[in-house]
Amino acid sequence: MSDTDLVDRIACEVEARLKKYLPNVDTLWDLNQVAEYLQLNAKYVREKIAPRPDFPKAICIQSVDGRRGQPRYEPPEVRAFARSFKDRN
Question: What was the pLDDT predicted at 1?
């Protein structure tokens, strides 16, 4: 593998990892991505954090047969929620 190939592979990996955290209003996060951002267990987020009244409201797109979709969250709202605890120490 040439140096150029190695640099390209590293750049692709860095880009893929950064996409998880860079602001992107076009991409909604599922509960697992929210948990990863908050560095918490997904079950804990689902049971203890998401039900909080101050946690961002989920976006659930209904399917054709009327079933409710999986909850999705807007990343900027989740980030703002996390930052709201910054001064609470």
Answer: 80
